[in-house]
Amino acid sequence: MLDKIYRWRMYRQLTAIVMIAGLVWAFFSDALITLCARYVPASWPEYLRGINNILLFGITALFLYYRIRKQQQQLMLSEKQYREMFESNPNPMWIYHQESLAFIAVNEAAIAKYGYSREEFLGITIKDIRSTADHALLDEAIKLNPGGFKEAGMWKHIRRSGEVFPVSIVSHDVVFDRKDCKMVMATDITRIIQNEQKLREAYQKEKKLHDELAVKHQTIQRSEKESMIRGQVMNRINNMVVIVQEDRTISWVNQAFTDFTGYTLNEVSGKNPGKVLFGPETDPEVVERLVSSVGQKIFFSSELVNYKKNGESYWTQLNLSPIFDDDGVFQFYISVETVITERKEKENKILAQHLALQQIAWSNSHEIRKPICSIIGLISVLKNADDEQELNHCLSALDTCATELDHLVKDINRKVEYIGQAANY
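Above: the chain sequence. Below: its structure as tokens.
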């Protein structure tokens, strides 16, 4: 633009200089010829004026010829440059007649993009590179076209092969071969649309992930709150609670466990509960059933001997439950233990007392039977006794058997009383 302004100013200056020089020449040359007429023959002034006019006309004609030729050369050069720019533009370009809509010129990029040869292009109209469904829209766009430069937006064009692809259209009014035409540049925006689609999909995925993260965050917060409440509840209950991970290591214990066993969470975390709590008196059969239930992820309940940190043993009622989420995926085991040492001791005492009573009853039944049998036999003899000496002998024997039986009964009573006192203790 600045170059055009500069050239226009230069042309005006040159024109002004030529006009001034011509006027100066015309004025002074005639005066000079008139002055010279005094010293030359009478026919010479007219001859000199003719030569002067011829020189003035010739020089002006040469100047104009030079300027016109130079302008034509510049015009031809400019046209050549514009044609080269048109042909070498990487985007498809064409010129079409505004009335017939026929292609008048196309560049190499258009030929390569659309698949038509140059001759085929010049034999079709701009409607032929659009689907029939878009013809009404094209007619409407042409009617509403205000002229000049215009960004026509996105259209769908069709290659010679029938493939449809999106383009962005920019047009401008031009005069080509003395006809009102439009020069169009079409930019294939397939990749742009694909990238926009990918961006939309990425945005939707990101939005979905964000929403899911928000939901998960709320769920985690709610879960943390619930876990905190459950933890507070489990810390306040008297039963010992142990949480065991799938790898069979302890991840959490409540305060009751620490208070009773003496083990802190840091001391047992990451360790196998059996290696921490089992000892010499722990029943191997119960342990085997426990391991089997853990392997099958099923509920287990049994009485078991465990050991505190100081080595003291205790009886516990162990209830081990596998915990699963809503989708059935295993999470962890939770073990709830109730100390039953006192009950087991009472049960053992009762069992011992029962066995003792059985032994007493068995042993004394045989010892009591002996004097009773003797008494029965002596009574039979007394019934058939003939003399006093035999009678006295039987009575003396009966007295001995009765005394022996009394001692046995008193001894049984003492043993039973002792067992009862031991049970109350």
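The first strand starts at residue 93 and ends at 97.
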